[in-house]
Amino acid sequence: MTIIYRYLGLQVLMGLGIATAVLLPLFGFLDLLDQLDDVGKGTYSVKDAFLYTALLLPRRFIQLAPFIALMGNVTALGRLAVGSELTALRGAGVSPLGISLAPVVVGIILLLFITVLDQFVAPQFQQKAISSRAAALEKSAALGQQLGIWTRDERNILRIGEMLHARRAANIEIMHFDDNGFLLRYTYAKYADIINEGLWELRDVVIKTFNGNAMEIVSRESVPWEPFLKEEDISTLTKSPESLSPAELFLHVHFLRATGQESGAYELALWRKAGGALTTIAMLLLSIPFVFGSVRAGLGNRLVVASMLGISVYLFDQITANAGLLLHLNPALSALLPGGVLIAVAYFWLRRIF
After folding, report:
1. Which InterPro entries does its entry note (predicted)?
2. 3-state secondary structure of 79
3. What is the domain extent for residue 159?
4. pTM, entire model
């Protein structure tokens, strides 16, 4: 029996490899076409476009994992069905449930691999791709158009116009409020040098102090300032939620909550990582009835139906996530709902077949 499970597991791995070899280059090519539109802007070249696309591949693999699981398992078990090997296995006493165990075990291994990839590889590669592209296009790291980076704590609001590089920011605004929410001091600095985690050196500074109806204005060449946020929090603010690792997202959500800021987008991104794992398992389970439930159907027909299912799941997942963000629904519910629904559907479908 161990030999049979090894054989089934190898077939499923080969199916996943085939699905990856088809889907990953396809989506990578689409990314490349999108990047080629920017060639010629600034110093952005064809080489930069290829580099950006290559660095983005680990993230694309993670995003495509549920569909790779679906297509790969349908391909693997479909090939076994076409070759009458599934019939031979069932004739030898291997139950459909036993045959289904191999894809589930391979799926768990796939999830472990994705977890390591998402924590240690994909974020670093994606952030490198984004920063290299921004440098070539002569764009700075900023959130929004002309809005800069905003953050706050209990009594201060900080706006960073742009991050020129990791150690220097430009167009700094600091607003300090009293306990009643009245503005006490407004500080503007043309530049800020980040000396270390606990010290910034503000350059070309204008300080406006408010005292009742009076306002005092002072200009200084440089002023030391102790920031209320850590250096890693600044770097996190300049990155899109999806480019962060699970650990970075967890810590940043904690920071946003502790400072009373809106954390919905980052919470949703964190929960969607768990939702992606749930959807991957659901896709593996859904792929099994495609084979056992339609023995007479050809492999091509199975792949077409599986592709349609994959597109439908992708649209359902995107609609649920965006609707949850717009309607301020619970991020965990919005992220886990598609995978939960699919697992329920797979469960009842498998019960009918087995």
Report:
1. LptG (IPR030923), LptG/LptF_permease (IPR005495)
2. helix
3. 142-229
4. 0.82
